[in-house]
Amino acid sequence: MMSTTAADPTGTGPSVGEPTQAPPTAPPTRPPLRRRALTGLTFTNIGAVYVWIVIIVVFSFWAPDTFPTWQTFQQVLNSNAVTGLVALSVVPPLAARVFDLSIAYTMSLTGVITAKVIISTDIGAGSAIALAMGTALVIGVINGIVVVTLRVDSFIATLATGSLIQAFITMFTDGTSITGVKLLREPFASIGQKSAGGFTIPVLYLLLVATALWFVLEHTASGRRLYATGFNSDAARLQGVPTDRLRFLTLVASSAIAGCAGVVFASQIGSGSPEAGTPYLLSSYAAAFVGATQLRAGRFNSWGTVIAILLLGTGTVGLGLATSAQWAPSLFTGLVLIVALVVTGGRLGLRTRLTRRRAPRKEAA
């Protein structure tokens, strides 16, 4: 039997028929702790934190009597917890390069359904919330069918489903908020109004959802496959990644988190508003895109989004305490979003170019 092992032309290699062994390779060495710490503190990694510090310093001089206080810090967290939940809802679909513009309408719908059922029936707050969350999951499934199965562009598809949801909300509420004494009682009121140490319970929800998303995206195979789907879906599919299934699930998860935010917000304000979610759409996408420039450059991630929420929230609260014009917060959010899109797009473009340049070198090697 002829061996398939090739002889070394120099005569120093293994002889014909002698089994060959791959030379041992040294395990990859991690950079020193000091170097990793310095890399983690660079402006390109946590630039929003440095901008956040600059904003705090500016408003501390602009409104010295009201801004630099512990109460302001609590206000930033408490008033932006629901915004953070909505922003986290768009992280999974964006990681897979899918848009979900129906989140604001899903948030409004779960709020009015919960309020209407509590006011009109005696089945209790738990059953009302379960019904609202079931509706949110159905919306996520519909979005998944339209985007993944019917191959409609996610931007257009979720904008259309959002318009349909808003039409249903208007028909359901006649365009008016749903209020009642039952919404101000326990246990529904405690979902969004309880507090400890000056912080309301939605802050805890924000931390729990951010931690869960961080674990799934950074420490599970599904998270790595999700990022692979977002960076290059064709290559990921050829490697056996179920890209369609992942995109479908991200839209369901997005609707579920947005629906949860709607229930919490209805509990906070004690009513179901038909347009409660609309103001959160721009700020949530702004936070998600700013967050993609932080910690995991070019990747939509949960803790980067939380940092962005604190940055945007501090700016908005600071402008309010400094008695600025009414248009100033919208101007601030819009400018931050444009800068984030430029930075995120530049990093993604650089990553793509580097990947394309390295591919021929690997093939040649």
Write the layout of secondary structure elements.
Elements lengths: L32 H8 L2 H20 L7 H20 L1 H5 L7 H18 L4 H25 L4 H20 L4 E2 L8 H6 L1 E2 L2 E2 H19 L1 H11 L1 H6 L4 H27 L1 E2 L7 H12 L10 H20 L6 H37 L1
Give a structural overview:
There is one protein chain. Strand 2 (195-196) and strand 3 form a beta hairpin. The chain contains 15 helices and 4 strands. It has 365 residues and is an all-alpha fold. The radius of gyration is 25 Å and the shape is globular. Residues 1-20 have low confidence and may be disordered. The strands form 2 sheets. Strands 1-4 form a two-stranded antiparallel ribbon. It has a two-stranded antiparallel ribbon with strand order 2-3. It is 70% helix and 2% strand.
How much strand content do the residues show? under 5%
- Assembly type: single chain
Give start-end ranges of low-pLDDT stretches: 1-20
Mean pLDDT: 82
Q: Any idea what the shape is? A: globular
Radius of gyration: 25 Å
Number of beta-strand segments: 4
Distance between the termini: 32 Å
Enumerate how many helices there are, as a single number: 15
Main sheet specs: 2 strands, antiparallel
Structural class, please? Answer: mainly alpha
Helical amount: 55-70%
Major beta sheet, strand line-up: 1-4
Order of helices and strands: HHHHHHHEHEEHHHHEHHH
